[in-house]
Design a protein that fits this description.
The chain is of the alpha/beta class. Helix content is 41%, strand content 18%. Strands 3-2-1-4-5-6-7-8 form an 8-stranded mixed sheet, sandwiched between helices. Helix 1 packs parallel to helix 2. The longest helix is centred in the last third of the chain and has 13 residues. The protein is globular, with a radius of gyration of 16 Å. The two termini are 29 Å apart.
Length: 208
């Protein structure tokens, strides 16, 4: 599968690398693609680098791993280009970094998913890879025994199936929670956030 990574930092860089090693074609992106040379070399296989627009054009699936506060503007400018893509979004609202956008989301009590639905109307967006700290992901990918659980939520069942397969390919256990409304069940501050729980443990904690 062709995957474009927009936001090639700790999460985007790591997950994209795991996908490359699983045999997917990955394009990491940055406003300064030349800065990604070491990441591309480490990921190996057919990995390459480019701009965010090139990543969006390249990928059938887009891993979107940018600061949460940038999502409304990103969706405003890129929504049309993303309309035929499956977009996996990983961010968390941070008051110090994201300011009023984070405050609005957190104080609403509705969870992140409903805001993603509004911002990315018409896009096949999936909430995923937001619950586990990146050193845990790096250490525990493809471990023996119960794998680390990765919750997912989306309004698009076909997108959820593809995203679940990609979670498996990256070395983790996909835990499908439901529609975007239910992303609040695994947002920051919930019982499964930043715990490193296995898939079965996440399912028990969320009564799935």
């Amino acid at each position: 599968m062709k995957i474009g990574v927009v936001g090639s930092g700790r999460i985007g860089g790591l997950i994209g690398t795991l996908w490359s090693r699983a045999g997917h074609e990955v394009l990491f992106s940055s406003r300064h693609p030349e800065s990604l040379a070491a990441l591309v070399e480490a990921a190996g296989n057919s990995t390459r680098s480019g701009t965010p627009d090139q990543a969006i054009s390249f990928g059938d699936v887009i891993l979107l791993s940018i600061p949460f506060g940038e999502l409304p503007e990103f969706s405003r400018t890129k929504r049309e280009a993303l309309s035929q893509k499956i977009v996996l979004e990983t961010g968390n609202p941070n008051l110090k970094r994201d300011g009023e956008i984070a405050r609005s989301v957190l104080e609403s009590g509705r969870g992140t998913g409903v805001f993603l639905r509004e911002w990315f109307a018409g896009v096949r967006i999936v909430r995923v890879f937001n619950t586990v700290w990146h050193p845990v992901l790096a250490k525990e990918a493809h471990r023996a025994g119960p794998r680390v659980g990765i919750p997912l939520a989306s309004d698009d069942e076909a997108a959820l199936r593809i995203a679940s397969n990609l979670v498996v390919d990256s070395g983790f256990d996909p835990v499908v929670v439901g529609a975007l409304d239910r992303a609040r069940e695994f947002d920051m501050g919930t019982a499964v956030y930043d715990t490193g729980m296995s898939g079965p443990e996440v399912r028990r904690a969320l009564n799935l």
